[in-house]
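Predicting holo structure, ketopantoate bound.
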Amino acid sequence: GVTPDIVTRQEGVTAIEDEGLRRTGLLGEAAYRNVRAAASPDEFMADGPYDYVLVCTKSSATGEAGQALSAVPGLLGPSTCVVLCQNGWGNRERVSPWVDPDRVYNARVITGFSRPAPNTSHITVHVAPISMGHLARPMAGELIPLAEALTKGGLSCNASDEVGRDLWAKMLFNGSLNSLGAIFGVPYGKLSDHPEGLRLMRSVVDEIFAVMEAAGYRTWWQTSEEYFTVLTGELLPTAAHHVSSTLQDLKAGKRTEIDALTGEVVRLGEKHGVPVPVNQTVLDIIGFMEKDCA
Ligand SMILES: NC(=O)C1=CN([C@@H]2O[C@H](COP(=O)(O)OP(=O)(O)OC[C@H]3O[C@@H](n4cnc5c(N)ncnc54)[C@H](OP(=O)(O)O)[C@@H]3O)[C@@H](O)[C@H]2O)C=CC1
Ligand SMILES: CC(C)(CO)C(=O)C(=O)O
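Done. Tokens:
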């Protein structure tokens, strides 16, 4: 019953117009013809204001997407919910020059996607339902219709006032596994094969946990040790074969999202006086690899 309009690059627009939108992989095959696509949000101006706008770019493009959306008169209204679907921390701040922060929501996604064709999303891993919420205030049910529509479409989703805890759990996961997996060129599961990998993961996790607490945020575990036990005992085995997006980006010669992950940990560490030498080293190594692979 919901018909999304999609802003994407021109090759995606052409493929969606020709063949519709497709989903393959873990959550089953699906094809949707009733979808409009355009290369710029201008083309949807007459249809505003939208109830929901989902920003699904990389974190490095969140600000640019917010600017493009806000430049179209009437697209965002006083009750539009702009949902940022990026990994990392600080995405809310990246759009705040362009979009009223009260209208900005965040989503924590632990579903892995690849795009084998411009109109096809292939799902490789689905660890938990999407969690969506507001980082600065309790909600009044405004995301429930969106969560229900996504769930009905096959991608389970919850609206939650605890999305901040979920996002920090994801920071601990991506912050430790993505960068180390990329440095060693291995899927997640390999990182626990050797004591050196385990020690490095532990150091990265301990530092992220300390920064999170010093900055006044919380996640679902009371201590870093408690989280590490869950990471190595439950989360790593579930996603063992997954190759992190950081490694995929480096292989494709693309910019990674390290700035929104480890970069954010290093900035918050500096701000709150928490030493983060291992995260700083990881940031420098990935920064070097990005330049070398570009
Ligand atoms: N892929 C995954 O498995 C997961 C991803 N995430 C998070 O989701 C977010 C998106 O990741 P992912 O889907 O992999 O990223 P992709 O780069 O595959 O997709 C983003 C798309 O948005 C396009 N784009 C960027 N800016 C604009 C713009 N202004 N107008 C139109 N199109 C634009 C990009 O085009 P171009 O490349 O030309 O810039 C690209 O095609 C990231 O933050 C990621 O961390 C979270 C969990 C899992
Ligand atoms: C696919 C996923 C969810 C890892 O499980 C991810 O966040 C990533 O690769 O960056």
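Residues 5-161 form a domain with the Rossmann fold fold (CATH 3.40.50.720).
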